[in-house]
Design goal:
single chain, alpha+beta, Neuraminidase, 4 domains, 48 strands, 23% helix
């Protein structure tokens, strides 16, 4: 890029006899003098392309493969929200909507609601300026590059009417705040549009982005660094400054803010020099639908993980056979039952192929258009006695008197003169006039060969109005706070939480911890039960606990059972009354809890509660929960069951209580009712305190 960055190469070429040490020192000095250090924040997840605009809206193309390319994600309130569809390249408009190009070169525009509008033409890359101008790199070859086009819109809309071609060819494009494009060609050269021509800028690039202030950034062609190729910032006057990051793709947003996607060696990591909110979901893990919760309602404590509630929505119905029910931007194949991207104007769909339409009068026949009827030009006008010798003037005179379109003499000399063919006909042989083929079609004699192009892989038809598609069936909607997967509606996660399977968690890390806890506890219980079988009943207590545990594979039932058990025995009221009456000593609380836990028939739990009599901290805690007026009844039930089971798991040698504790998590519908941050949980430190009180050991 700049001269200092090129110093190692100059030294290597001109000083072959220099010592290795000299080269190393020179290279280090050149690198360190040209690198501009910035702080980078990692965004969980991965991306193969990134788009951003001047106000900070961010969209990415994920690393997960879907129909049309890779998944599309929109960053909303700190979460990546999955948007239906697939694409390979993306740019963000001034209003926060996205323009994407998919792997069949279709151009689509959408706001994030899953409804995409297809623009005419085809593209391999797209860029949007801060003034709203949209430019594309087309799908038409120009040497090793592709054509460059600017969008023309219907007045007052973002509906593309056509694309205005400019000279040149490229593979990547970005647009500055004034609507001026910068491009990178297949050789890595960088060009800026100046008036009606292109001016080359020094350096090399494989991707390019332009910020809200007009600053240009590129992923260069060298040097290779961790995560890809070095990123450079344009300083003007053909000078570049290297940034301390490597990338494969880049986007620029508000002034000074950039986002990079690294290569596969870094699992397509996303990084930015702009600090982001702490709760960010991973593209590929579906984030919850964002809202704007007040800080005081943020769930805490044991609510770092919750189960998503479910309800059925009936048996699905077959997909529609109505052409109007195709996904947005698609049309039904008139010869089949699949939907394909709309064909370009002047083309008609036939399965996965778009065929050029035959104009009126040209009958359609397979891959060709039949021609209208040809006609003969007659016997021709011959030389006659009285005409000048070896002169065809008389022939032409007689022919032109009879034929206003003019005449011609195909053979020259004094051969026959014929009337010229009528408009839209041409001569074939001496006296036959054959219809002209439509523009762009190849003349095959009696037929005109139609042009065609492939139109991608078909998608199933959609669903009738009022229903939504899941798999290959249609279902009724799940409502505003649920998402449908087949016949089941799953409650959405609390705002700013991430979805992890059948549950939700405050962070991806907490999701992993909860799932690990559940898996390990089940494995531990299974191992203990298996050991009892191998010892032929030598450990009766373990067998009893194992048999009555409800089976490890059905431990999810423990969540509901624990809550119902506490509610049925009215334990919360008992504990609340004890505390208010001043009788909530260890003995009375221990007795109440033990009685409440008996319906579980877990011997280890009963013994654990009995042993816990010396842990005043434990009994005070559950009494406080029962007396907490900020909690709903459901929340009290969940909290007491969780606390009891977690504590007794510390002294349960079978691991069965640990299994129940791992699965005894609240439903997310309970979590979202939380009105107080003061929800207690036994975190690691408190669990160790209980262990010391119970067992007298660390």
């Amino acid at each position: 890029m700049n001269r200092s960055a090129q110093l190692p190469e100059v030294l290597a070429k001109r000083c072959m006899q220099c010592s290795v040490l000299t080269l190393i020192i020179g290279a280090f000095m050149a690198y360190s003098s040209s690198v501009y250090a910035q702080n980078w924040t990692a965004v969980p997840g991965g991306a193969t392309d990134i788009g951003a605009n001047a106000r900070g809206d961010v969209w990415v193309i994920g690393a997960n493969s879907v129909l049309g390319g890779h998944g599309i994600y929109h960053l909303i309130n700190g979460n990546f929200q999955n948007v239906p569809g697939g694409a390979s390249r993306i740019a963000v408009d001034t209003d926060g909507s996205a323009w994407v190009v998919n792997n069949t070169n279709n151009i689509l525009h959408g706001s994030g609601n899953g409804q995409w509008t297809t623009a005419p033409g085809g593209a391999t890359d797209i860029g949007v300026g801060a003034n709203g101008d949209v430019w594309i790199i087309g799908a038409d070859r120009s040497g090793n590059d592709y054509g460059i086009y600017k969008a023309l819109f219907s007045p007052g809309t973002k509906n593309v009417t056509s694309w205005q071609r400019v000279d040149g060819g490229a593979i990547r494009i970005a647009v500055d705040p004034n609507g001026i494009p910068w491009v990178v060609n297949s050789s890595g050269n960088i060009f800026q549009r100046q008036g009606n021509s292109w001016a080359q800028v020094s350096g090399g690039a494989q991707d390019i982005a332009i910020g809200a202030d007009g600053t240009v950034y590129v992923v260069g062609t060298s040097p290779s660094v961790s995560g890809g190729i070095a990123v450079w910032q344009y300083q003007g006057n053909n000078n570049w400054k290297q940034l301390n990051i490597g990338a494969a793709n880049i986007a620029a947003g508000p002034t000074g803010v950039i986002y990079v996607a690294q290569d596969s060696s870094k699992q397509y990591a996303i990084l930015t020099n702009r600090p982001l909110p702490t709760a960010i979901a991973t593209p590929g893990l579906v984030a919850s639908t964002p809202s704007t919760p007040a800080a005081s309602t943020e769930p805490h404590g044991f609510t770092e993980f919750c189960w998503r509630d479910t309800h059925g929505r009936g048996v699905g119905t077959p997909l529609s056979t109505n052409s109007s029910d195709c996904p947005a931007g698609f049309a039904k194949d008139p010869t089949g039952l699949l939907c394909y991207p709309n064909c370009k104007p002047g083309y008609r769909m036939a399965g996965p192929v778009c065929w050029q339409e035959c104009p009126a009068g040209f009958p359609e026949a397979a891959a060709d258009c039949g021609k209208p009827q040809a006609y003969g030009r007659g016997a021709g006008y011959a030389w006659q006695i009285g005409d000048k010798p070896f002169d065809s003037g008389g022939q032409f005179s007689r022919c032109q008197n009879d034929n206003s379109q003019g005449c011609e003499q195909p053979g020259g000399g004094i051969t026959l003169v014929y009337p010229k063919c009528k408009a839209n006909f041409h001569a074939v042989g001496t006296n036959i006039c054959s219809p002209d083929c439509p523009t762009g079609m190849q003349d095959m004699g009696a037929m005109c060969q139609r042009n065609s192009y492939t139109n991608g892989v078909g998608e199933p038809l959609g669903c009738p109005k009022g229903l939504e598609k899941s798999g290959l069936l249609c279902y009724s909607g799940c409502g505003a706070n649920s998402d449908g997967v087949g016949p089941v509606c799953w409650d959405r996660c609390p705002a700013n939480w991430v979805q992890c399977g059948a549950g939700c968690s405050k962070t991806i890390a907490k999701c992993g911890e909860a799932i690990t806890d559940q898996v390990v506890s089940v494995l531990s219980a299974a191992a203990m039960i298996a050991s009892e079988v191998l010892t032929a009943g030598g450990a009766a207590g373990i067998v009893e606990a194992g048999k009555s545990s409800g089976q490890a594979t059905k431990m999810a039932d423990a969540t509901k059972q624990a809550s119902e058990m506490v509610e049925k025995l009215n334990l919360t009221e008992v504990l609340k009354n004890m505390k208010q009456a001043g009788t909530a000593d260890s003995a009375t609380v221990r007795s109440a809890v033990a009685n409440a836990m008996k319906p579980t028939k877990l011997t280890a739990v009963e013994k654990g509660v009995d042993v816990a009599g010396g842990a005043a901290n434990f009994f005070t805690t559950i009494a406080d929960v029962a007396d907490n007026s900020n909690l709903t009844q459901d929340q009290k039930n969940w909290q007491i069951a969780q606390t009891v089971l977690q504590t007794t798991s510390l002294v349960d040698p079978t691991g069965i209580a640990g299994v129940v504790a791992a699965y005894t998590k609240p439903l997310c519908s309970v979590v979202t009712q939380t009105a107080s941050n003061e929800i207690f949980d036994l975190d690691n430190a408190e669990r160790q305190n209980v262990r010391r009180e119970l067992l007298g050991a660390e």
